[in-house]
Amino acid sequence: MYGVTETADGSPPHLELRGVCKTLGGRTVLDHVDLEVAKGDLLGLLGPSGSGKTTMLNIIGGFLSPDSGTVRIAGQDIVGLQPHRRDIGITFQGYALFPHLSVFDNVAFGLKQRGAPKPDIKSRVTEMLALLGLSGYETRLPRALSGGEQQRVALARALVVRPRLMLLDEPLANLDAALRHRVRFEIREVLRRTQVTSIFVTHDQDEAFALCDRVAVLNQGRIQQIGTPADLILEPANAFVAGFIGSPNMLTGRTMSYDEDSQRATVDINGFTHAVNCKTRVAPGTPLTIFVRPEEVTISPATSGGGPFQVKDWVYLGSGREMWVDGPAPLRVRLPNDAQGYERGERVTLSWRPERAHAFPADAESRATADHDTAQVRR
Amino acid sequence: MSGAAASGNEAARATSAGARPSGHRARMTRWLIVFGLLAPALLLYATVYLGGMAIIGLASFGLGPDAESGATLVNYREVFASAHIQAVVLRTLRVSAITVIACLVLGFPVARYITSPDARWRSFVVMAVLSPLMVSAIGRVFGWIALFGPGSWVAAQTMHFFGTRATGLLYTEAGVVIGLTNILLPFMVLSIAASRANLDESLLKAAASLGATPSAVFWQVELPLNLPGILGGVLIVFSLSITNFATAALLGGSGRDVVAYEIYSNILTYHQPGTGTALAILLLVCSVAIMMLAIWVGRRADAMQAPRVET
Amino acid sequence: MSRVIVLFSVIFALLPGMIVFLASFSAGNSLAFPPREFTLHWYGVILGDPEFSSALLMSVMLAGVTSVVATAIALLAALAISRYRTPTTVLIEAFLLSPMVVPHVVIGIGILQIYIIYGLRADLMTLTTGHLIVTIPFALRLLLASIAGLDRRVEMAAASLGAPPFTVFRSVVLPQMKMGIAGALVAAFILSFDDVSLTIFLVQPGYTTIPILLFNQAENNPGPAIHAASVILLLASWIAIFLIDRLMGFERLAFASRK
Questions:
Q1: Average per-residue pLDDT in chain A?
Q2: Would you call C113 and B59 a contact, using CB atoms and an 8 Å cutoff?
Q3: Which domain holds residue B174?
Q4: Measured between beta carbons, which residues in chain A are less than 8 angstroms from residue B221?
Q5: Scanning A85, B46, B305, C2, which has its CA 20 to 30 A from the CA of B74?
Q6: Does residue B196 fall inside a structural domain?
Q7: Nearest to B155 by CA among B177, B172, B176, B139
Q8: Does the CB of B176 have a partner CB in chain C at under 8 Å?
Q9: What is the CATH T-level fold of the domain A15-239, as seen in this structure?
Q10: How confident is the model at residue C75 (pLDDT cuts 50, 70, 90)?
Q11: Domain containing residue C222
């Protein structure tokens, strides 16, 4: 079944979704979603807007009910449970700090609801604030805090009650780039220290990869693939994942031949031939969509005969040089800053390691699944 | 507007506000233009509005063209001494207080409804409940008279059940309260709805996720954040109802003599401008003070919801 | 429970208007309700009554002149205030908006005193000046909001293409303000048309408006034709609401009239 992987140490999952479906306003937002998260895991829910991530968050949090399917935490079915009884910590995009309460009262809110005695509240809140570097902020009001500080207060507030699950909705979305890196690190540290099982919902791939142990890619209400960032980059399960992760070059070509043992296909891209990796068995002539990341393309000067590709332009990006190359198909190539330079108009040849180029049958874009039978009629 | 477009416009505003052709001549021309544009309004206001109120002010102190002697406080003394006027003021306050409560009881759920995301009849309710803002009060007064007045079905029923006089609810203070609530409810609804619109739904979700029962969410989060809007509404409705004239005059009967009506009868009917003008000035000062308070509360409410500081 | 209250409030708000409307068709002679038969008789009576029709004429003319003049004056002021923001103009803005927080009766008496001192009679001009004071603040509010919503960059583009300031105003600013101006005209009209608390101090016998007429009748001896008269008065309100809703959405106007 798609989307199900074994949890890291084989123990029963802490959070489990089975067959969750939800239709909103006539649109199917979640389509038979299965998900397992082990205790202590940091899972990312990554997907474009409209993919259903916010709905999933709302369902887990208890603000929406699924049309069908189950949601279990530590074996307990929580579908009928009200939000305030679920013991799930949530940080919201926009932080949702109570504007009329001080930092201390904000963080203490959950403890107060649980009727904790005052001295307990004081010590736990103080401890949590210290953990997040907010000591001394107790009497401040939310509107006097910067975005990063508000984010930390929101985290403190959710974590101090020691929830059995944390949901973080786009935690870094409202912060500017420079702040994001720092806060990213802090969030990961705090969650590791408190060992809370956490789910991050985000549309930002860098964020998901930086924060999470495993990432679930979501599109059109279905989980496309779950795996470590390395899994997703090196072994994308379908065309959507391959195209969504990183910003790969997307090429179209026709199958020339296919070798089932090595899962290699030789493909013809407008006259340029190369080997690619293809997990589905395809017959010659099948159109393929091929994804190659700019970092995986090697470039070398053309032999005296003139190469099939021509350099159009390049830019310095700070992290490297990106070259735009024209030819049988336009391609972007990433090179380190100090690599050999090329003149505009110079003819070059390109190549890549076949296992780093992922090809999929061209008609099965975003609903491809691994066990989908793609047997073609042999000519 | 998208964020980029909006900030671009902001920049444009700032630029054009500051970028002007410099030089003495240009500044003089500009000043003349501004003055010219504002002149008609200011002239009108100065003569009719300020002038009129100044005359009343002077008259209340015994000054003005008809004055017999110099400045005096006799009018004010009379106002405070008169038992009749004290009763009038008490009645006005009583009626206004009950009106405020009625508007609050009716207005809060309405404001809540029109600001909730899943309100199906929203625009209809908005139109209906806010219509008294624009629909003539006088035009509708006879609806009340027909409904509650002598000879009406309601009057007959109240006589039947309570044995009271056939006037029913009309021509009593209760009638005034009903009429006032009817025309002032929109103000309460607007004030509360405006502060509710600023309420972030995720705040309520956050509270629930932290373990607050629905009742706790209401009392500890929703209500405190709505308080400025409620307070503002209370002040505005109170101020408008202590100054009300027409509704009280028509529906009040025995309860018609509120402050505004007292001023009216003093000046127009009994030609006792002295006490009338003093009362008018006092009413003016009180109602303006309350309104200013309401505006201040409103400003504080906006400050509570100030946009986040991004650094 | 709160749904019940909302329903009650809606009915409560609409009730008197509906009753007047229904009662105007009643054939019965008293002010009783509900009506027993239906007829248009009273409309005929009312429209034929010379006192009513002269008051109607007065009301319409007064409201018409008031709305045009108020909108014009408010437009000039709004332009000055929004384009030349200095501490002085901010103060002037507060001043021009202040009649909204001052009781109408006080304003009315003030103007009455001016009449008395200068021996003025009630006529179109004197009544208009009074009505202007209470309508200009609303018109100003609406127009300020309308101007605030303009994209200044369009004007900058026009200027960069060579248009002098007045042309920019005429061909860029004004057309964009059409809705706001129309809204101000309608709002000012209906405020003037419906006004009682101010007007009652300014009218004299023979020179009265519809609301005042109704007011006096109610105090004295309302005949059954009063409902028809009320409906005619209400008609103006209903049309105004409809127009405003079409022009700028009723909600925007409502929120603009917040103190």
A1: 84
A2: yes
A3: 73-304
A4: 98
A5: B46
A6: yes
A7: B172
A8: no
A9: Rossmann fold (3.40.50)
A10: very high
A11: 56-256
